[in-house]
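re: ur question from earlier - yeah i can do the single chain one, its not a big deal. heres the input i used so u can compare w yours
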Amino acid sequence: QVQLVESGGGLVQPGGSLRLSCAASGFTFSSYWMNWVRQAPGKQRELVATITTGRATLYADSVRGRCTITRDDNKNTVYLQMDSLKPEDTAIYYCNINKYWGQGTQVTVSS
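and the output i got, formated as tokens:
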């Protein structure tokens, strides 16, 4: 079965950085586009970043220039490097493929 396991979240000060990881299993990872999606309290889910099988990347306007999505097909893992973090980046970050979701990892940006 498909499993997505996120890690790397935490509490960071404004301007700080975090690197999120999502370890995937149960499907042919290299054949699928991968997404990072976030949900802040009281808000709808927001697609943050997508990476294609050819490693093309797409970003939400809210994070473009501050986040980088990458993938390692040998490790079946997708990453989200987040820099210059802002309080409004506070959310649960989920790894997503089609109808499958991980459990999420909490990112809190606060001084």
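The first strand starts at residue 3 and ends at 7. not sure if urs matches, ping me
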